[in-house]
Amino acid sequence: MLNFDIFKQKSPKQRFLLILGLIMFVFYVVLGFAFIFYEPIALRLSTIPQWGRIAMGIFLIIYAFVRLLSLGRRD
């Protein structure tokens, strides 16, 4: 699963980029769920059909996990 040894022996720059990547992962997941479930977004984006908002939310959640996997693969 996740290897927590990635925090060891990292330069401050690499550690900062890792933490920034984790923050962006959380941001994309929250944004994806907001597109799907948060009602005020539905009111503001009333020109987009409901299936479009759900598709965008699912896309953002999948994109977040792809970014997380690529973050774990970096050296």
Description:
- There is one protein chain.
- With 75 residues, this protein is mainly α.
- The chain is built from three helices and no strands.
- The chain has helices at residues 12-37, 39-44, 50-73.
Feature tags:
about 80 residues, mainly alpha, 3 helices, about 0% strand, transmembrane, membrane, transmembrane helix
Q: How far apart, in Å, are the first and last alpha carbons? A: 16 Å
By secondary-structure content and strand pairing, the structural class works out as: mainly alpha
Find the count of extended strands (DSSP E, 2+ residues): 0
In round numbers, the mean pLDDT is 83
The sequence of SSEs as H and E is HHH
Keywords: Membrane, Transmembrane, Transmembrane helix
Transmembrane segments: 16-38, 50-69
Write the layout of secondary structure elements.
Blueprint: H1 12-37, H2 39-44, H3 50-73
Helix pairs in contact: 1-3
Q: What's a concise summary of this model?
A:
The protein has helices spanning 12-37, 39-44, 50-73. With 75 residues, it is mainly α. The model has no long low-confidence stretch (mean pLDDT 83).
